[in-house]
Design goal:
- By secondary structure, the chain is mainly alpha-helical.
- The chain contains six helices and no strands.
- The protein is globular.
- The relative contact order is 0.18.
């Protein structure tokens, strides 16, 4: 794939992660209660919420193309996979407990269909896979 396609995929994924991050942070105090609907107890939901928010934030340097060390870029790439994996796990747990899979939006967007949450996650996974395709520049 061309460098332009990869940069566009990274940019779109970065914008989606920032959108989800803002949705989660606007209702940060209500987010553990929402996660308890996914079957996670309140004390553990606080840990899950903080790890999710931190990994989303750490994944941004790779996605916005910051010029930083390779180690930080590697950590940022891994954080992207970890954060999306956590979002999928939270959504699956929510569906198994009879709640909407759109709980990844936090309490900000309550009336979003569960199908929207699934589609957003599928699009984000596709963009993350595209963004991590090696090019001649990254294969050095």
């Amino acid at each position: 794939m061309s460098e332009k396609v990869l940069k566009t995929a990274k940019l779109i994924l970065g914008v989606l992660i920032i959108f989800l991050l803002l949705c989660q942070l606007f209702t940060f105090e209500k987010f553990p209660e929402i996660l308890s609907g996914a079957g996670i107890n309140l004390s553990m939901s606080l840990v899950v919420m903080m790890v999710l928010v931190i990994t989303e934030l750490v994944s941004l340097p790779f996605l916005i193309g910051m010029e930083i060390s390779r180690l930080v870029i590697l950590v940022s790439r891994a954080a992207g996979f970890i954060s999306l994996g956590m979002m999928v796990a939270i959504s699956v747990a929510a569906v198994m407990n009879g709640y909407s899979s759109a709980m990844i939006f936090g309490a900000t967007l309550k009336n979003v269909s569960g199908l929207v949450g699934v589609l957003i996650l599928a699009i984000m996974w596709l963009l993350l896979i595209i963004a991590n395709i090696p090019t001649k520049k990254t294969a050095k």
